[in-house]
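Supplementary Methods, section 5.1.

A reviewer requested that the exact input to the structure prediction be made available. We therefore reproduce it here, unchanged from the version used in the analyses.
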Amino acid sequence: MPRPTARVLTLLELLQSGGIRTAAELAERLEVDERTVRRYVDHLVDLDVPVESVRGRYGGYRLAPGHRMPPLMLGDDEALAVLLGLIAGRRVGLPTTAGTAHETATAKIRRVLPKRLARRLDAVLDSLAFTAPPDETAAPESAVLLSVADAIRHRRPVSIRYTAGDGRHSVRTVHPYGLVVHSGRWYVTGAEPESGEDRTFRLDRIADARSLPGSFEPPAGLDPAQRVLSGFAEAPYRHEVILWIRGTAEQIRVRLPASVAIVEEPPPTGREDGDSERWSRVRLRVERLDWLPPVLASLDRPFVIERPDELRDLVVTLADRLVNSARRRPPDVRPVP
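The structure derived from this sequence is encoded token-by-token as follows.
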């Protein structure tokens, strides 16, 4: 059974998580009775930890508002979660782990850990390997991220200095709706009040962001992630592709995700004709067509090409190549004596 000191520290951890904890809840978590909980609370008060007793039907114990605790007290699982989170954040280019922030944060956490736990974590970190290098090219500036997030929360317009993909610089006013992380990159989606059009901006291309006076109301039923994905799928690439695929959006997006294709499912007809699967209309904008025939083949569902005719020719060419390959005999390769 845990020693009383360990239970007192566990009680402190529970109170640190915020909110009011009832005596019954604490007793269950600590595996003691409520009288013992009160004694543990007295121990914390003797150590100058400001634990407040809240009376009433929903009463219990809590830490005094605004109280700042001394150095971190982390269990094995918590310490491992924090350090692995820092490492994983650096691999995907999170702004808070760019530059030296990763090293300094890791060092500060390790400094307050017991030596036994620090040695065990070092063993994990020393034996850990990744198959891909860190992605630091798309990490936005922390100041930009915080400014944009604050504007989103308080529904304030924001002015940004932006560099487009072609190198053009501009200053824009945006009504920001939400932040989205997609494929290792950070985006902010919103509307430009002058044109009223929806826009998506990469955060790593924003050099400066500052809130402006005023406020705005975001559209009802807003889904920032879906807006970003739809923007990718509707980008003005060279070819417009329209397909009819027999299957649901969920089945189709196994190979054609929302960032690539817009899937329009027809409403149920209510007929019982034995056709349990309906045809969905799929729209894509692509720069090249040569990658689509293998994807359609891997989808393994009936499809019809509405346009362009060039895609139909590419599918026929792939089918002929596969048939010819299937009919070939293995080469007669004999070992050299």
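Residues 309-327 form the longest helix (19 residues). These observations are discussed further in the main text.
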